[in-house]
Amino acid sequence: MAKAKKSKSILTDNSYSFLKNYINNPSPTGFESSGQKLWLEYVKPYVDTTFTDPYGTAVGVINPDAPFKVVIEAHADEISWFVNYISPEGLIYLKRNGGVDHQIAPSMRVIVHGKKGAVKAVFGWPAIHTRMNGDSKETQPKVENLFLDCGARNKKEVESLGIHIGAVATYEEGYEEIAYDYLIGRAFDNRVGGFMIAEVARMLKENKKNFLLVYM
């Protein structure tokens, strides 16, 4: 959760439009390039040069010949899931991609990024009355007993949608504004850092300050 702009905010409407697009764009760990492209396009007017290194790091530089440099760094990725197994009945089982919390997964809607594009799915989870069995302890969500349902009736139908072992799934929920000027969205912990770097670059440019190397 993050605080939204106030009437005297130093942020602009364009800044918030960028933040919304940046948060809503899927950029799972190991596949961050689409988010990095959004970031680079936004910072280009405010920096002298941009590049990506062999590791895929996106970099914007202000005054590259300055003898003293400051580096600001942030992550662009979001934790997510890998497709690990497709059952004969068409259920999709997963492994973590990063430190994703399995306890919040039941009933969450996701996008599976397959070979043919995005496929909508939902985490399956039994109704509470079926999880309570007499005096026994209620079943808890685990990575091993969670699965996705994309509507397919068997493994062949899942694969015909382009879903494959190793495909990445990200949560569907995105940027929203809630009461008292707060914002919510997935991957805020990573991308707000990238957003702040971009805004530092913008304000340095607009205030004619010229000494910083910004890096993501």
Entry summary:
With 216 residues, the chain is an alpha+beta fold. Helix content is 24%, strand content 25%.
What is the global morphology?
elongated
- Tell me how many strands there are: 13
Q: Examine the secondary-structure arrangement and name the CATH architecture of the largest domain.
A: 3-Layer(aba) Sandwich
Could you tell me the mean pLDDT? 89
Q: Helical element count?
A: 5
Q: Quickly name the level 1 CATH class of the largest domain.
A: Alpha Beta
CATH-defined superfamily of the largest domain: Zn peptidases
Radius of gyration: 21 Å
What is the H-and-E element order?
A: EHHEEEEEEEHEHEEEHE
The tally of domains stands at 2
Features:
25% strand, alpha+beta, Aminopeptidase, 4-stranded mixed beta sheet, 5 helices, 6-stranded antiparallel beta sheet, Elongation Factor Tu (Ef-tu), domain 3
Describe what this molecule looks like in 3D.
The chain has 216 residues and is an alpha+beta fold. The chain has two domains: 2-76 and 187-215, 3-Layer(aba) Sandwich (Aminopeptidase), CATH 3.40.630.10; 85-171, Beta Barrel (Elongation Factor Tu (Ef-tu), domain 3), CATH 2.40.30.40. The protein has five helices and 13 strands. The chain has helices at residues 13-24, 33-43, 128-131, 155-160, 188-206, and strands at residues 2-3, 49-52, 58-61, 71-72, 80-86, 92-97, 109-114, 117-124, 147-149, 168-171, 176-178, 182-184, 213-215. Strands 6-5-10-7-8-9 form a six-stranded antiparallel sheet, with no helix packed on it. A four-stranded mixed sheet has the order 2-3-13-4, with helices on one face. A three-stranded antiparallel sheet has the order 1-12-11, with no helix packed on it. Helix 1 (13-24) packs antiparallel against helix 5 (188-206). It is elongated, with a radius of gyration of 21 Å. The relative contact order is 0.25. The model has no long low-confidence stretch (mean pLDDT 89).
